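Lab notebook: predicted structure, single chain.

Context: the supervisor wants predicted structures on file for every construct in the current expression panel, including those that have not yet been purified. This is the next one on the list. No modifications to the sequence; it matches the entry in the shared construct table.
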Amino acid sequence: MTGDVKRVVLAYSGGLDTSVILRWLQEVYACEVITFTADLGQGEEVEPARHKAQLMGIRPEHIFIEDLRETFVKDFVFPMFRANAIYEGTYLLGTSIARPLIGKRLIEIANEVGADAVSHGATGKGNDQVRFELACYALNPGIRVIAPWREWDLNSRTRLLAWAEERQIPIKRDKGGEPPYSTDANLLHISYEGKALEDPWVEPDEEMFTRSVSPEAAPDKPTYVEIAFERGDPVAVDGQALSPAALLTRLNELGGANGVGRADIVENRFVGMKSRGVYETPGGTVLYAAHRAMESITLDRNAGHLKDSLMPRYAELIYNGFWFDPEREALQALIDKTQENVSGTVRLKLYKGSVTVVGRKSPVSLYSTAHVTFEADTVYDQRDAQGFIKLNALRLRLGAHLRGR
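Prediction complete. Output recorded below exactly as produced.
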């Protein structure tokens, strides 16, 4: 079976797992490896991955490094935020939403270079294997996927490290000399798993965090920020028009400086087990609050309630890897229809880990001061409410009569 693969495209970060996989593919499959590294705003230089791949024998023309930050935010993050998607009430889906884009580019590069297969570094215990492969199969049903964690006998982090050291593969270590937490980072978030975090009773070490100050260390003076929206998407911060990636970067800076966006979660993985992860999503947390506030004055009540009722299903589809699923696309069409008038500006206060909406305005607002005022008005007859209440109470009164009889 291994001899059937002549050329494989590897999703390559340059970290421990994918560096071991690169060498393993060369040794076990004896095939030509093409590496693909996506810059999704992970906050680290991606060029070292090029140097590392070359050291491991990859020809320069077979090393793909692409800046996909704008595409990631515009075509994946923003559509998801139009839905206000949150998985299990707490997770803003930072890792989940990046996988379909990486899978899409894996297939496109495989088609371009005539590869027989694609490969990834996701383990056989996690969600990412599902997300990568569902995306790949949706876009190329006949592609072969090589998932080394499901094939090799390097079944622990300890054995992986030993294998890497035997072959003199460089290993990044933390300040204490230990391999770092298992992390995934992009412009939307960074996640931490493994090591001490495997015990859900253990509090995360403050030194672990990289994108936010602790709420206790945040400034004593609040930061105010205004976010402008057009058709459900943010387009400006404090009056400055920004591209999608630049806008999210700015919100990350503001949120992180005020201790916003940390979440310690035990989530239900698609494969069935529970997993503890710690996340930093500063800009996404600010954006989520702002978008809901924008909808509160521009979105019709029943349209909003319908959208909210569908959100858990939409979030679950993304979490489980079904971005290219017809159901997700159908839901997206409905969601995008609701966003046609979600335009205006929201003002928020960021203070010691909290995000508070303190103002919202829109040229297409459905909020009518004339109707809600406590002062005298000429647009609403309060006597109309009597018939409204009686009609809505009719079935309740009939039921009460029946029970009384």
